[in-house]
Amino acid sequence: VALVESGGGLVQPGGSLRLSCAASGFTFSAYAMTWFRQAPGKERELVADITHGGGRTNYADSVKGRFTISRDNAKNTVYLQMNSLKPEDTAVYYCSARWAPRVGAPDYWGQGTQVTVSS
Question: Is 41 helix (H, G, I), strand (E, B) or coil?
């Protein structure tokens, strides 16, 4: 099982980034996917999640209207489009997978990708 994030980097305030998370080793279409982030000295927080079929999404209030989560089950990939980035969005971003019928903590985690928003 693997979740591999990519697309992080350094961007100026107001800029955009698109994160990708490629999944392998499990039935991707049977798993809800969530992006979390963790800034230095802060707890990990949920950013956005999407149901296994992609029909429903949920966002943290801090990113609503700026971030969009999506998935392509044919490519076993989940995305996070981040627009109008702010310095407070700086964090390590992690994708995670949770078997859809179950509630609770994710089953699998990626290694994280750093996003830094700074001028």
Answer: coil
Return d(Cα 98, Cα 111) in angstroms, integer.
Answer: 16
The 10 Å Cβ neighbour count of residue 95 is 29
Contact (Cβ atoms closer than 8 angstroms) between residue 70 and residue 78: yes
In DSSP notation, 60-73 reads: -TTTTTTEEEEEET
Report d(CA 24, CA 2) in Å as an integer: 5
Assign 111 a pLDDT band (cuts: 50, 70, 90).
very high
Could you give the 3-state DSSP secondary structure of residue 28?
Answer: helix
Question: Is beta strand 113-117 parallel, antiparallel or unpaired with respect to 9-11?
Answer: parallel
Instruction: Tell me which residue has tokens 């994280």.
Output: 112
pLDDT tens string 16-42: 999 999 999 999 999 999 999 999 999
112 Ramachandran zone, left/alpha/beta (phi>0; psi -120 to 50): left
Neighbours of 88 (CB within 10 A): 10
